[in-house]
Predict the structure.
Amino acid sequence: MARRSLPILSDPDSRQVLRDLCKRHSLSLPLVTDLIEIQRNNLGRGKQIGISQEFNAVIAEFLDNQGRD
């Protein structure tokens, strides 16, 4: 079965709301999008073992890339 895209990431109006929220709170839209996808990929895994490590890895990569700008 094909995986459906999330409206918050695919619907233009919803995406604009997310973009505005990220801007208002000084958050990176790509980082938030990555974190949403990690959460989605871990749904149904019970205790979601390993999700913290995935979050940490994405955040660490984001911070490393920030230093390169």
The radius of gyration is 14 Å. The chain has a mean pLDDT of 87.
